[in-house]
Amino acid sequence: MSYEPNVPTPPRGDGGSSNTLFFIVGGLVVIAGLFIFLFTNDYIGGGARDVDVNVEAPAATAPATPAPAPAPAPEGTTGGTTTTQ
After folding, report:
1. pTM value?
2. Which residues of the chain have pLDDT under 50?
């Protein structure tokens, strides 16, 4: 598009309504962040969050069945290890 000096251009808006909207939304975001900070750090509405829990483990008991006997050694072995030099 080329510039034509004889064609009038429409006047531009001053952007006042957008700036006002940005200011209001920004203020609401700041207020929401402030309330979130205050509530999560117990500055407001807290104090009733103390929890005391006592848990005791049951006493250890012997197993209900005895351990199985070890498997017998294969025939022809005497057990232990041997080394040759």
Report:
1. 0.38
2. none
Taking CA atoms, 63 is separated from 20, 58, 59, 79, 82, in Å, by: 76, 14, 12, 30, 37
**Identity at 71, one-letter amino acid code:** A
Identify whether the C-beta of residue 21 lies closer than 8 Å to the C-beta of residue 28: no
* Alpha carbons 19 and 26: distance in angstroms, whole number: 10
Residue for token digits 């290890």? 81
Indicate if the alpha-carbon torsion angle 77, 78, 83, 84 is positive or negative.
Answer: negative
Distance between CA atoms of residues 32 and 24, nearest Å: 12
